[in-house]
C-alpha cells in the first residue's frame, strides 16, 4: 500500500473501528493496541519530562547511553547529510539521547521527539520506538502509518537494543526524518 492508501485505511479504522483490508498485520496490530490503550489520534506531541526526571532516567541508563555515545557522535555528520536524527530510548520508550541534523532535531522538538520525550505506544500510539518495543523487533513506521496525525510527517526506523549476554531489552535505537525526504 502506498502512503495515500495507508492514510485512507487509517481514517477508515478511526471512523468505522473495523480493520481495513490490505493493511500490513504488524501495523494493524499496533493501531489496534493504540485504540485499546485509549490513545486518541488527535494528540500533537508526546509528553515531555522535566529536567529532574531526565537526569534520573539518564542516570539509570548510564551504561546504555555510554555504550551508544560513540555511535551517536560518529553518525552526526552522516545523519546531517541524510536530513535525519538518531534517537536512543530506554526500555520504556523514554528518549535519553539524540544526535543528528540540527535542523531535523529542531523540527522534532515540535512533537517532543527529543530527550525527555515519552514514545511508548500506550502514550503516543503507533510509532517506531513504541512499536519496536511492543513487538520486540525492528520496525519501520512511514508517514501515515503513525497513529497520531501530527506525527505522520515523520518516517522512522527502530530496532531493539538487547544485552549481549542475557538478551535483556535495554532500549531502542531509532533513525527518524521528515517523511517527504526519508530514505
Mean pLDDT: 93
Please tell me how large the radius of gyration is: 16 Å
Low-confidence stretches: none
Give the helix tally: 7
Nutshell version of this structure?
This protein is α+β, with helices and mostly antiparallel strands. Helix content is 41%, strand content 19%.
Please describe the structure with a list of short key phrases separated by commas or semicolons:
183 residues, alpha+beta, five-stranded antiparallel β-sheet
Task: Lay out the secondary structure.
Layout: H1 3-16, H2 25-36, H3 51-60, H4 62-81, E1 85-90, E2 95-100, H5 102-108, H6 121-124, H7 128-135, E3 139-142, E4 154-162, E5 169-178
Antiparallel strand pairs: 1-2, 1-5, 3-4, 4-5
Care to describe what's here?
- The chain has 183 residues and is of the alpha+beta class.
- 41% of the residues lie in helices and 19% in strands.
- The longest helix has 20 residues, at 62-81.
- It is globular, with a radius of gyration of 16 Å.
